[in-house]
Amino acid sequence: MNSLLSRAMRILSQRDYSEAEMRRKLLTAHSSFRGREEQEPVSADDVNSVIEYCRQHGWLNDTGYAQKFVESRSRKGYGPQRIQFEMQQKGISQEEASAALASCDIDWFEIARDVATKKVGRRMPTDWKEKAKLQRHLAQRGFRQDEIRAVFSDSEY
Q1: How far apart (Å, rounded) are the C-alpha atoms in residues 140 and 142?
Q2: 120: which residues sit within 8 A by CB, 6+ positions away?
Q3: 48 and 77 in contact (C-beta within 8 Å)?
Q4: pLDDT one-digit tens code per residue, 93-142
Q5: Which Pfam families does the record associate with it (predicted)?
Q6: Nearest to 82 by CA among 70, 68, 93, 66
């Protein structure tokens, strides 16, 4: 168990993880060492106790992880739908993901405009094919339809 705890601390020293990611990492990391005799088998109880220990010391916190994840992904130009999907892929519950998105102070309309400007420049496309292409790009980045429509109705273009 001590080796499992030290492995968890090494993993968490590199970046933040959700609880589900950490559980997967601890279980799969052990399976790659099965050929060595000095490795003791890891039980689900050992993993649970290590995760509980990390949670008690504030090293694992899904709520804090979700808020940091929203901030990070929004800075990279992703919209709320994509961010919520990615958080669920990382084991964050839908409720926690929604709460993290709701608690953040992010102007999704501004981010959508920035992504569109980066994609096409300051001139809004006039051709319907180019408009459709930009709409698909924004939708793939995870922006909602009202945010995409606001990009096209914005008078700055």
Answers
A1: 5
A2: 130, 134
A3: no
A4: 999 999 999 999 999 999 999 999 999 888 888 889 999 999 999 999 99
A5: RecX_HTH2, RecX_HTH3
A6: 70
